[in-house]
Design goal:
221 residues, mainly alpha, 10 helices, 76% helix, 3% strand
């Protein structure tokens, strides 16, 4: 298996690490303090994942943001050559999807107490890669229809969930553990990271499968 195919597996590894982290830390978090306001108990239904970056779970969650982001970024960049071969839309897809890792790292480096920088990280990590999924779908349409459908479907669903989250999230309500914005955000994250994992690993393996016969032919020659 080529190096870029092995490195592409870092994307699902990073996604799993991040998901397991917020699941476990969300179950044990007693709450947190934000701008002098104590928010307790922690509710994964109402509270955003970013709340786990504060309080006793802060070092662990922020570490998961950063380490998971590095894994996603390296894995996505490893497949950049494949996306580049698919033309302009493929290049656009690679650039936008790479922002997921960058955004995760930013969210880990800047907690909710640095609100604007943390929000910037969130925008880099979710809606922009979702646009990249749509570009990926266009570039894969004639090459691999199954992957193209995953890309287009994942992009549309991610953007839809992002819009729902932004429309339903209310900081004051979430602080009182009201509403379901936290649940919507978690579904949004899972869809986005799953789509990126499938696309990056899928194109890397497809490239490896296409290259293999060529290598064999050259060897026999």
């Amino acid at each position: 298996m080529p190096v870029h195919s092995r490195l592409a597996l870092l994307v699902p590894v990073g996604a799993i690490l991040f998901t397991v982290s917020w699941l476990v830390l969300g179950a044990i978090s007693p709450g947190y303090e934000l701008f002098g306001t104590v928010i307790a108990p922690y509710s994964w239904v109402s509270q955003p994942v970013s709340g786990l970056g504060l309080g006793v779970t802060g070092p662990w969650m922020n570490g998961a943001f950063i380490v998971g982001g590095i894994l996603v970024l390296v894995g996505t960049l490893a497949s950049a050559g494949v996306w580049r071969s698919l033309g302009r839309r493929g290049i656009a897809a690679a650039v936008l999807m790479s922002l997921m890792g960058v955004g995760m790292i930013a969210c880990g480096a800047f907690t909710l107490e640095a609100m604007m920088l943390h929000l910037l990280g969130f925008l880099l990590a979710i809606p922009l890669p979702a646009v990249g999924f749509i570009f990926a779908g266009g570039s894969l349409r004639k090459l691999d229809r199954a992957l193209a459908r995953v890309a287009l479907g994942g992009g549309v669903v991610t953007l839809l969930l992002f819009a729902i989250f932004m429309a339903t999230f209310d900081a004051s309500g979430a602080g009182g553990n009201e509403g379901m914005a936290g649940l919507v955000q978690r579904l949004l994250i899972v869809v986005a990271m799953s789509t990126q994992s499938i696309l990056v690993v899928g194109v890397a393996r497809r490239s490896a499968a296409v290259d293999r016969p060529v290598v064999a032919t050259r060897s026999s020659a």
